[in-house]
Fold this sequence. Notes:
About 40% of the residues lie in helices and about 20% in strands. With about 200 residues, the chain is of the alpha/beta class.
Amino acid sequence: MLRIGVMVSGGGTNLQSIMDNIDSGAITGAEIAVVISNNPGAYALERARNHGIEAVCISPKSFSDREAFNETLLEKVNEYHLDLIVLAGFLVRIPPKMIEKYRNRIINIHPSLIPSFCGVGCYGLKVHEAALKRGVKVTGATVHFVDEGMDSGPIILQKAVEVKPGDTPEILQRRVMEEAEWKILPKAIQMIADGEI
Ligand code: GRF
């Protein structure tokens, strides 16, 4: 059984899609051991608890400096003996020590077709604003391994999504989630559970 830790900062719809896929049997051989958030108000924590999954918050605001936060975060992650860490809308930079220790065992979902609309400062709605501003006709989502860079690790899966006339960043964000993110993130987890990657 692949033990997964899901790291979140917000609403947790991607977390929900993973839980739903496990429940329906679309993902087999994997279980969520813990959900970790940096944000105490993240609805994702509630989604996890409603599902009987352990949910933990470690807020950087409770620490005197980033180093102390990073150490506690890594200690917490280590406690769960995870095989895979899934960043599902986690808005905190992963500490270098964690990347080193869990190399090729941390994956992230990004709401664009990398290498477009990614990198430092390009997250959340900003990604879709940038895509609309540039006038692309196709966008999408990417699941990739996490390395020391920002959105620069090896790509696992991508799925394209059409941009439609009249799209706002919010409408496009929702379509990218529904048509791409909620599909390719569970699929990537299944591929890893099956040893295909
Ligand atoms: C998603 O768009 C994801 O691609 C990005 O952050 C958002 C998280 O949404 N990294 P949710 O919390 O899973 O609803």
